[in-house]
Write a structure and sequence with these properties.
- There is one protein chain.
- This protein is α+β, with helices and mostly antiparallel strands and 539 residues long.
- It folds into two domains: 114 residues, no CATH class; 280 residues, no CATH class.
- It has an 18-stranded mixed beta sheet that branches.
- β4 and β5 form a beta hairpin.
- The C terminus is likely disordered.
- This is Vacuolar protein sorting-associated protein 13B isoform X2.
Amino acid sequence: MFKLESYITPILLSYVAKYVKNFRDEDAQVSLWEGEVTFQNLDLRLEVLEEELNLPVELVSGHIHELSIQVPWTKLMSEPVKIIINTIEFVAKLPDNESRQRRASYQKEQRRKAKKAAVEAEQQGAAPASSSVVVKKIINNITLQCHNIILKYVEDDIVVSMNVQCMNFSPAGENWKPTMVDVHPVSVSMRKLLQISDLTICLDKRNTAGRIEVCQEPVLYRCTLECRVLRKYNATTVSTSSTTRIGVFTKALDINVSSLQFPMVMRLVKMLLELKPAEMEEEALNPDDPEETAEGNEVPVGGTQPEGQSYLWWAWNLLPSFESQVPDPDPEETIGHAFDIGIYAEELNFQLKNSEFFTDQAMGGIKRIRYTPILRISLGGIYYERSQLKENDWTNVKAGLSSLCMEPLGAYRSEDPVDRVLVNTQESLKGRTFIDKSLFDEHFMFSDRTWCRHNYEDYVARNTDEYMLFRSPVLSFDIVEYRAPKPNSHPLAESQLKDLGLRVQYRLLSAGITFHFSQSFLQSRSGRSPSTRSTLTQT
């Protein structure tokens, strides 16, 4: 008789054993059969996390204080399995040459183990088809809840501390609400929802002894984010065609940077721009090793595996293997691996402060920091989108801004209301048009319309100047990199036009920005009264 516990329990415990050191799953089986099992003080396998997440940094340490697995055995088809983590801590740093070599060796070893395990599983036989459908649905609907995530990054004298009070990861339905979902065995659309609450980031400087003398105010305080991930592909042609869309949205982003933190922020920005995810190194074949040669002869359907294979192929392998009729291809569907990421912020406030150390005699002579506000920049309706289809040599970047206000603060603030604002725009009355056709647009369904066209003429026809200013009436910008089609050129002109190569087109549209150049802002520091004022309006 088929017992669901005999299939689900080893799978769940194998996930824990994969990421946790010194884990004995036989000690937890009985507790899990009762519906819940809890583990305390777990050390994580850092090399596995670096490989799975393709992290551009090296994890120095990782620790979980408490991990619980809850399985509703009597309602498995209607309620998800829950994994709950209470307090997880990480320490990271930039990778050095030794860590890169260690990661490359680990990747090579893991590829060999994975292929060996696949062969053994095929020889042992799989579970019944009926049980396979149930197991795959249960695994695909696992939800993850993390409470109190702590990440510390140390680089020279810079210490970055990030804390997340709550993070929820779950499957979602078409309305992007957490729910139990069924996955079609062939034509797959998978939606995942990641919700982050109370994200706080601190940036401090440590001395030569490695200590932080005075903790500064957080750069980002209690921010809430929502990330939506949509994958669409055909399970029989996953190696040649797929679509991945990722969207990140926040209602408000309040960033505060002091004069002591500003140089550190610039160093971190430069470092982030230079960082790239760890690349999978190709394994050289050894002709003297028959096992390695046999492995090297295995080529996935459709040629090489696509980029980001660790995520896409992991999702594909969770699906049941059925021999069913392949649906007819959609004539409007893009052929190839399309990837799209969008970042959206309804409001972003940036405040710059001057900071200086002083000794507080009232508090026993301890050293503290005094802050004086200088400037505030408020941006509204911001978006950044990037889409790519490598098979067509197509890359598109779009960005926009719906409102802008820049004003001095503190001693630099003018008494004249007209002179208080340096740069401003008319308030947008079009609502949240900046999220149009994104994963956060309630009126745009992915299954109803084609979200992107990978043809330049068609792209320009749909994304006109009027539409770009509709999404972001203040500032709109896009870049399109594409391969121009080869014309049927005349033999005499063939030497000039036979290879048009890649073309890059830029557009920058702006309207309704007013710049105020005021003497009051320049003279407020010296205490002199303003004498002149000029205003420039750009349309």
